[in-house]
């Protein structure tokens, strides 16, 4: 299953379907660090490149705010939670399994970005870092309304249970992340907080997938399954 990201450039989110990895990574896992067979991951990445129509650069996320610029198609991935490019024909990807994949397009400059926005990345300012990089490319901080964002499938606020102290820490910066699970425990709604922060940062056009990776077995969920794969968000610089 491939979900169009609804941006004005080629951009999509994948589910578990369409790859060759075996359980617990079945089947379209793109992450090398989770214990899957490297040949299977390579084949899955090739399948995603076929969907994108061009080579794809994948990130090595580490829940930080590092931004890596990609200028060559298929460039080796950097340890970063934001990939950004202005080179036509270059595709970049983020991967996640409950964390929030975000794709950004700045119509003014033509730049695109792929972001891995988990709980700690959001808290540390990964979205702000991505937007700062986009605005640096523009050379100015005007007319942010031309920036579009698409938020991919992630664990929802009814499912993402956390200790009360952790909820409180995140809520100090993102009050809107405060949530409770469907079973009445403290929780965080990271996708909702991501959407709100993008709005604050000036995005006029934001689309958000409502699928919950924890609830929907079509997606990888680290919280649900522990050892598992990662799904992908891909955007191509036009
Ligand atoms: Zn949920």
Structure keywords:
238 residues; alpha+beta; CNF1/YfiH-like putative cysteine hydrolases; six-stranded mixed β-sheet; five-stranded mixed β-sheet; 6 helices; 25% helix; globular; binds zinc ion
Structural class: alpha+beta
Please tell me how large the radius of gyration is: 17 Å
Q: Largest beta sheet: what is the strand line-up?
A: 4-5-8-7-9-12
Overall morphology: globular
Could you tell me the mean pLDDT? 95
Terminal CA distance reads: 23 Å
CATH homologous superfamily label: CNF1/YfiH-like putative cysteine hydrolases
CATH class designation: Alpha Beta
How many DSSP E strands? 13
Write the layout of secondary structure elements.
Blueprint: E1 2-4, E2 11-14, H1 38-52, E3 56-58, E4 67-69, E5 82-85, E6 91-96, E7 100-106, E8 112-117, H2 119-124, H3 126-138, E9 147-151, H4 164-173, E10 178-180, E11 186-188, H5 190-200, E12 205-208, H6 222-225, E13 231-236
Parallel strand pairs: 3-6, 4-5, 9-12
Antiparallel strand pairs: 1-2, 2-13, 5-8, 6-13, 7-8, 7-9, 10-11
This protein binds zinc ion.
Zinc ion (ZN) binds next to loops.
